[in-house]
Design brief:
431 residues, mainly alpha, Rossmann fold, 4 domains, three-stranded antiparallel beta sheet, 12 strands, 45% helix, nucleotide-binding, aminoacyl-trna synthetase, aa-tRNA-synth_I_cd-bd
Amino acid sequence: MYRFAPSPTGDMHIGNLRAALFNYIKAKQENTDFILRIEDTDNARNIAGKEEEIKTILKEFGITWQHYYVQSENLKFHRQMALKLVGEKKAFACFCTEDELALKKELAKSKNQAYRYDGTCEKLTDIDVLNCEKPFVIRLKKPHSQMKFIDYIKGEISFNPEDIDSFVIMRADKTPTYNFACAVDDMLEGVTCIIRGEDHVSNTPKQEHIRTSLGYDKSMTYAHLPIILNEDGVKMSKREAHSSVKWMLDNGYLASAIANYLILLGNKTPKEIFTLEEAIEWFDLKKVSKSPARFDTKRLMQINREHIKMLDNDKLNTLLNLDKDVAELAKFYTQEASTLNEIREKIQAIFAVKNYNEFDNECKLIKEVLKDLDLPQEYDEFKKILMEKTNLKGKNFFMPLRLVLTGVTHGPEMSEIYTLIKSFIKEIIKE
């Protein structure tokens, strides 16, 4: 059983989408269920509408799920599990205040030591706990021995007990911490493999320790994906436009191309251009590089162009929101455009009100002749007639003609585009 567990706290990051794709692919390969779980327990950071946006984006990428959970709806189970651990003396109430802990952290820092919880409240008796009226959190006692787990990408990873420490599992407001809610939910939902970013490596031993302490003995496997670097070689920030999946979709990148690129990124694949369905046939987690992968916008644009070319006319027109009779023209521009937005801009430029600038007189003359001209089938004949009737030639003919018909002074050969816009010319010159 595989899962994708995003938080509705902002735009979906490409790193999260990459994890979603890999989990979905593995679930398909193993013919097992895929879970979507919204981790919404951080109320202060949750953003209205992001939960639905996550679902919409996943559907856009062809990612479907068999089970859907909202983490906050499991709160009663989180509390029950925490009480179970306290009752079994595996966890304890901690009354240390934030100020007290801050002082201890500063002291450790002054000694160049890593801070570790000193066990102050772990020594309290039941009577001490009952008599204390201060707010408290619940901490899970640190493990007694080293914790190890196998990672498909990184191999064996181990943590010493002091690295895991006695950590908080329930806050003073009786809500679970991220690691506790995550570990309990994975246990309750029967998750067997977790694929996520390597920034979660330090969370894994804590979550393993939580499940072990609760008596859960089913094995869990992991794959921690290397981080994605920006084009400067620095970890890609959520503030960078290209890190947002929504931004990419809004800016004309196809979901199929983004998926293609993210599966390809830092991976050994049998070919460069492929669909998600094809990737399911040959994807192998063990071929994913351990090293960080650098995001390459130019390569993504090349892949996007190839995926746009693969679209049939109806699908392309639907995505561009164009009339059917513009289909061939839109398809033609896939030869030089890298995003849907670029194609849309080129089509819009043809039919938009134009600014003729230095060629104002020439353009007006060409438009005047075109009004009453019976348009020939072939471009060469069209060009010949128009040059004769306007008495224009060279730069003073070709650039104004292109400007009148396409809205730009440079672009594809007019001989190639003429037959595609011929039926629209009378409409174009009316602008």
